[in-house]
Design brief:
Structural class: mainly alpha
Largest sheet: none
Helix content: over 70%
Length: about 675
């Protein structure tokens, strides 16, 4: 059962008020389908006021774009039904494909533009000369629902995005502090694993929540750039703290007195609240300590790598705390670099063009088959079939397997029909006037509205509400025709069945297949990075990999034990990626011989991950281990050119992640001359 608190009750009341206001204004304006305004008000409504305004803007833009496409296609192609169906199907499929490449609420614009063209265009085939009037009416009806939902949710006890986001960001930072403290104190593995899961799981959730911030009315709206910079630092902490954990595990116990004192100093700094100025001084001391390595042994390299990761983690934590202070107080000081970061470009998220194209193709085929049933059988009310095929294929395209969600939506839409029939043939004929209509509609809509804020029940509740409102088709003059009621809803379920069959045949995949696909894209990305000979921005690179990590972790859990997924460690791949970034950044400062040895390592890493991506997975080869040890031997001796401790830490990290069980290398020999 969902939690019915005061915010849930207020949301249901506001949504109902917005829907009734939209219906009343629709009646007053004499709109042909005022119930569209009522349904739209429920679709746009969100628990957070900023999210309502965000979705309202995107929905309005998508509606205008879809209406324009319908007006352009229908009059010009109405005499060629096959071409019209093909053009409409390709429009929906193309819009859906592009929308899936942007996994933020902005994607709503193109997705809506796709199926809005179908909603307007297919019913207008019988009256192509009036398509412009139909399109204008649909835009007004949908715009009215958007306007009413936005006004009510913004004016009546609004729940701002900023307050929730700030609390979530503070909790996220607290989780990072706790993970760092647990690592440095040597807490048990269960506590460390819990901290890691919490930090990684929040990354994508907070990023999607922050998208609505520019539409918020809270003070935090002015700090959108600072929120983005904060997210970047927190994203970097995941591989940094994970790498720190690996080094401490490899050392088992840090016996070096200076390194041990440094760890204790970092613990004290975090416990003191991570103050900004002491944090900057602490980073400088850690970097100086990392550069002052005293011998060329493997343990010394591990300690150096530990100190490098510790300095980077303290720097990221320090900047995250400084940005959190700015979010709480607009006058809190920031360094020049952080001020610049707060105005930087948005980070890219994971996208999958082949999968997006396949989803668009499935929508195109489903619409064409629905059009075949509509036109082939001469079905007068059959336009609902391609419309619903478009809607269902678009609504659930982001899921690994959309079929269960489509079936669930169709089931609850079916559940709404007896309720709609009861109202249409028993309740509504007995009513006289709008006030009585509001009273009659209150009971089902207020109860269903309580289930929308809970993600677990939102889909079912919206399915019943949309099915109920659309089946009633409330208009200024009421007429109850059972044959029209049955025929119109039959078309919806034909579209539903075709969407299910096409999606199951072309697009559905299980959690294991989705996990393999994400892993394959990660491995291809690591292979490209290893061979690129150029270092990307660490925060941007980490953002994409952490986003994939957040998507991958639940899929691996759902897939369960499988031979082809055994031993997969997505966090290890993230650490490997960050180590490659560090090595690529240090490479230009090396001698020609040093670059040749590093290139041999990078080529070997690229070959390993290319083999994994193409399904020829195997453990890293002994040859790659030998190349790594050769590069480490030269780095340890420092006989050729100065080596950045960050590059050395990257080599140590690669060896630890790719060969965790390999014995310690012998680094006492002089490096071989470059060939």
């Amino acid at each position: 059962m969902p939690k019915f608190d005061r915010w849930t009750l207020l949301f249901s009341l506001n949504s109902f008020a917005a829907a009734m206001l939209a219906l009343y204004v629709g009646f007053a304006l004499g709109l042909p389908r005022p119930y569209w305004a009522m349904t739209t008000a429920y679709i746009v409504s969100q628990p957070l006021a900023g999210a309502v305004r965000s979705k309202a803007v995107y929905r309005l833009l998508g509606t205008l774009l879809g209406a324009t496409a319908a007006v352009a296609m229908v009059p010009n192609l109405v005499n060629a039904p096959v071409l019209l169906c093909l053009a409409m199907a390709l429009w929906v499929g193309g819009c859906l494909t592009i929308s899936l490449l942007d996994r933020t609420p902005r994607s709503y614009v193109l997705m809506l533009a796709g199926y809005t063209a179908a909603i307007i265009g297919f019913p207008a085939v019988s009256q192509p000369g009036g398509v412009f009037e139909i399109a204008v009416s649909r835009v007004i009806e949908i715009g009215l629902g958007i306007l009413c939902a936005t006004l009510v949710h913004s004016l009546v006890f609004p729940r701002p995005v900023g307050a929730m986001l700030q609390g979530r960001l503070a909790a996220w930072l607290g989780e990072a502090d706790r993970w760092a403290l647990d690592l440095l104190r040597g807490s048990d593995e269960q506590a460390i694993a819990r901290d890691r899961r919490h930090l990684a799981a929040a990354a994508s959730e907070i990023r999607l929540l922050a998208v609505h911030l520019p539409f918020d009315t809270s003070r935090l709206r002015e700090t959108t750039g600072a929120v983005r910079a904060f997210h970047d630092r927190m994203t970097l902490l995941i591989p940094l703290l994970s790498g720190l954990s690996d080094r401490m595990a490899a050392l088992r116990e840090v016996r070096d007195a200076k390194a041990r004192a440094a760890l204790d100093e970092v613990v004290a700094w975090i416990e003191a609240g991570a103050p900004r100025e002491p944090g900057l001084a602490l980073v400088e001391r850690l970097e100086a300590l990392a550069e002052a390595r005293r011998d060329a042994g493997w343990r010394a390299l591990l300690i150096e790598s530990l100190l490098v990761r510790l300095a980077q983690a303290v720097s990221a934590l320090n900047e995250a705390h400084a940005l959190m202070a700015r979010l709480r107080d607009p006058d809190a000081p920031l360094s020049q670099a952080l001020e610049a970061a707060a105005t930087g470009a948005r980070r890219r998220m994971h996208s999958d063009f082949p999968l997006a194209l396949l989803s668009g193709g499935a929508a195109t085929v489903a619409i064409l088959l629905s059009c075949l049933a509509w036109i082939g059988f001469g079905w007068g009310d059959g336009a609902a079939a391609p419309i619903m095929a478009a809607v269902f294929c678009c609504f659930f395209a982001a899921l690994d397997d959309p079929v269960p969600a489509i079936k669930n939506f169709g089931l609850f839409s079916l559940v709404s029909l007896p309720l709609a029939a009861l109202y249409m043939f028993a309740v509504l004929p007995a009513l006289d006037g709008f006030p009585l209509l509001v009273v009659a509609m209150a009971a089902p809509l207020l109860i269903l509205g309580l289930y929308i804020p809970d993600p677990r029940t939102m889909g079912a509740a919206l399915a019943v509400i949309m099915g109920f409102c659309n089946a009633l088709a409330l208009q200024e003059s009421f007429s109850a025709d059972f044959a029209s009621f049955l025929n119109g809803n039959l078309g919806q379920f034909v579209g539903l069945l075709i969407a299910i069959m096409v999606t199951a045949g072309m697009r559905s995949m299980g959690a294991d297949a989705s996990a393999r696909r994400l892993l394959g894209r990660t491995w291809k990305g690591l292979a490209r990075l290893a061979r690129s000979r150029a270092a990307p921005d660490p925060a941007a690179f980490a953002a994409v990999l952490v986003d994939r990590l957040g998507l991958l972790t639940p899929k691996l859990a759902m897939a369960g034990p499988r031979d082809d997924l055994t031993g997969v460690d997505a966090l290890r791949d993230l650490r490997v990626g960050m180590n490659l970034v560090a090595i690529q950044a240090a490479r230009p400062d090396l001698s020609r011989g040093g670059q040749a040895r590093i290139d041999a390592v990078l080529d070997g890493v690229g070959d390993h991950f290319s083999a994994l991506a193409t399904g020829r997975g195997a453990p890293p080869t002994p040859d790659l281990l030998a190349r790594l040890d050769t590069a480490l031997r030269e780095a340890a001796s420092r006989s050729a050119a100065p080596h950045s401790p960050w590059g050395v830490a990257g080599l140590v990290g690669l060896r630890r992640n790719l060969f965790p069980d390999a014995p310690a290398p012998d680094l006492s020999l002089a490096p071989e001359p470059a060939r």
